[in-house]
Amino acid sequence: RALDDLEVMDAEAFVRALAEARDTAYKGVVRPVEGTILTVSKDVAAAAQAALDQGVKSTLTILERVVQAAAESVERTPELLPVLKEAGVVDSGGKGLFFLLEGMLRGAYGMPLDKPTVSAQPLSALVLERAGETIEPGQDWEVVVDFRPQARLDLQTFYRHLEDMGTSIQVGEGDGLYRMHIHVPDGTQYEPIEYVRTLGTVTKVAIENLMEQMECDEEPPHPMRLAPPEPGQLAAIVVSPGLGLSRVFASLGASAIVEGGQTMNPSTKEILDAIDKLPTDKVIVLPNNKNILLAAQQAAELTVKQVTVIPSLTVPQGIAAMFALDPGGDLEAVSQAMHAALHDVKTIELTTATRSVEIDGIQVREGQIIALLDGTLIVAGDDLQQTLMEALERGTADEGEVVTFYYGQDLNVKQANQIADRVRQAWPDLEVEVVEGGQPHYQLIVSIE
User: How far apart are CA 389 and CA 387, in angstroms?
Assistant: First the structure.
């Protein structure tokens, strides 16, 4: 707000902006707590104003003092908030603000951004256990709602109603759009949304299970929510090579999932068993791999049920087809729509060559990364990212609208996001999404739509 309509940010405008940021932050929290990012924002604004009062006119000099003040403020946060001192850590939000400000300073100096100036010390198991005990009861769900109020929003009344529902309440505002954040007990996660709907138009909702985040990584995953069909309805059986992909198929309405993929082809009997177990006689099967297509067709011939096999040869084709599934629709009409959907997507698969070979004029050495476009080898290289970029160029990614990366067991989400960021830089008009696939053998399965 302080910088609205300004073409140049001079020292005075910079100081005003930091003060406005501080004031906005404090207004956005129903009960401000010191020792958090709020304190750091206050100390930063004070340091900037002090420099200006001392006659400093250089924005860069003020920024230097601001970064120093932020660093010192972060180190003081444990003295202001007992839970931080008990855990032996500084406030994470305040530290994040420090990094943003330090990044501005580094950028001004042309310094690298990827070399850390501090190191984080790991918490011992005891500290983690004790820190876990300080979590407030009832903070099972995080709910964030964006909305436009129909009339002027009375913040005090708004806060009072929210306090009856949960904790960790924060409210932000900009250009007439409000964002409400709250933590609520299990079973009440929809109450804040319904309340906000009485005040205006909801534009976006995000709900996250906080208790699930606290569970140990070794605990078994929650069961997938498949879509059991009613008798007479259409049911879809899909073959999936990874847990993450199975969850995607389940979210799209799959009634049964058969594990399988490259080097782990399910048998005809496994597919037939899945067909026979469904409480309906109208079934659609998506093999999602050319090596599984024949087994699926044989299973369809061995059952008395009405079974249609959609010849999906890749996972992205199967996902595209699932968007055309209508459990209450006509089997032939839905099958035709799913057939048509196969042509709306291109698939790039990246894996490691297990032997040296020449295919279609492309020399491949054992251990290289190879890229397949709809099953045809198009690129071989020594670097995953570079091979992907070349494959995307040959796959005419610039003609697509959405690219989705399903990353496999050999990659983590950070690596996948780094790859996605590089693609966004190369094709800024593309919408790029990253989804955990969990598939073996293939580092990436890429969908171009």
Answer: 6
